[in-house]
Amino acid sequence: MAQLDINNIEKIEKQRNSVHEKVYTTYTTFEMYGEKYIQIDTYGRSDRENPGKISQSLQLDKDTAKYLIELIGKELDL
C-alpha cells in the first residue's frame, strides 16, 4: 500500500511506454484522525495466480487529490 507524497512527485521522460490492460478496481473512502481519504485498489489481471488479491493500493488525502486533478488537467489539456 502506498500514500502519494505530493512533495516528492517528479515528472520523468521514459524511452519506452505502453498502455496497460484495464483491470478490476474498487475504491473506499474513510476518515482517520479527522482527515478524509480515498483508497483505490486494483486487482490485476483476471488470469493471475491470485485473482481476488489486491495488486496495488493508492491512498489520497484531500490535498493530494486536488494536486492530481490539477496535474492531470494540465498534462492532458483538459
Walk me through this protein's architecture.
- This protein has about 80 residues and is of the alpha+beta class.
- The chain has one helix spanning about 60-75, and strands spanning about 1-5, 25-30, 35-40, 55-60.
- A four-stranded mixed β-sheet has the order 1-4-3-2.
- The mean pLDDT is about 90.
Notable features of this structure?
flat; 4 strands; alpha+beta; 1 helix
Total strand segments: 4
Contiguous low-pLDDT stretches (5 residues minimum) are: none
- Biggest β-sheet strands, sense, barrel: 4 strands, mixed
Share of helix, binned: 10-25%
Spatial order of strands in the largest sheet: 1-4-3-2
Please state the CA-atom Rg, rounded to the nearest Å. 15 Å
Secondary-structure element pattern, one letter each:
EEEEH
Write the layout of secondary structure elements.
Elements lengths: L1 E2 L21 E8 L2 E8 L13 E6 H14 L3
Parallel strand pairs: 1-4
Antiparallel strand pairs: 2-3, 3-4
Task: Write a brief structural summary.
This protein has 78 residues and is an alpha+beta fold.
